[in-house]
Amino acid sequence: xxxxxxxxxxxxxxxxxxxxxxxxxxxxxxxxxxxxxxxxxxxxxxxxxxxxxxxxxxxxxxxxxxxxxxxxxxxxxxxxxxxxxxxxxxxxxxxxxxxxxxxxxxxxxxxxxxxxxxxxxxxxxxxxxxxxxxxxxxxxxxxxxxxxxxxxxxxxxxxxxxxxxxxxxxxxxxxxxxxxxxxxxxxxxxxxxxxxxxxxxxxxxxxxxxxxxxxxxxxxxxxxxxxxxxxxxxxxxxxxxxxxxxxxxxxxxxxxxxxxxxxxxx
Length: 266
What we know:
It is a single chain. The protein is α/β, with parallel strands linked by helices. The protein folds into 2 domains: 3-101 and 232-254, Udp-n-acetylmuramoylalanyl-d-glutamate--2,6- Diaminopimelate Ligase, Chain: A, domain 1 (3-Layer(aba) Sandwich); 102-228, Udp-n-acetylmuramoylalanyl-d-glutamate--2,6- Diaminopimelate Ligase, Chain: A, domain 1 (3-Layer(aba) Sandwich), CATH 3.40.1390. Helix content is 31%, strand content 27%. The chain has helices at 3-13, 47-55, 79-89, 99-103, 111-115, 155-166, 195-200, 213-216, 228-246, and strands spanning 26-29, 38-42, 60-63, 94-96, 119-131, 138-154, 172-174, 180-190, 205-209, 222-225, 251-254. The longest helix has 19 residues, at 228-246. 39% of the residues are buried.
């Protein structure tokens, strides 16, 4: 498959026009390759993940996070230098689908909405409007989502389902737990600044990651800090599955990442 054709498919799932102004999505490292046979998808373009993709024989890498949000010279021996070294030695193209993937209301970022079968799902923070292909009109896009559960769930039952869907039973809860959960809001990754919008949209629970102490003090609804890694790791696994369905002739591998945080009990 030609690289240009693969990028066109990726950009249907993560349209570049949806990229936030501060983001650095798109081609991260160019390559002399024109044809590819094996796509590797990962959350983080870390040296360990890149090395694993190389060991599997991948010849195109798709990561969620860019190599860096602040382009700089590889002037010190750190992970940025190591990642570039691996990519250049293997002549590997790396593409980042960051905020374009986050903002697509029809994309993998809404995996939790599909797991809970949310109804009437809407965007939490609209960041733009894009013309659709084939003269089908326009569509809003943005960060996060809110929607109604098919039926209200007692909080403990809701948490049981969340643990199943998110494949973890460890998270931080902030604020008073609701007796029932009928409306859920979520922003994968780091989106705690959308908690007020979640409350305005009527959610009893808001799920995100990277909640800071002083931010948590101001929450007026129950917030679950599920973790940046867990929310986006599953999102990228969903992305890999979507690409595999779209491109059955192309070998697609998902490279599992590692959460840098651990929960310790003494």
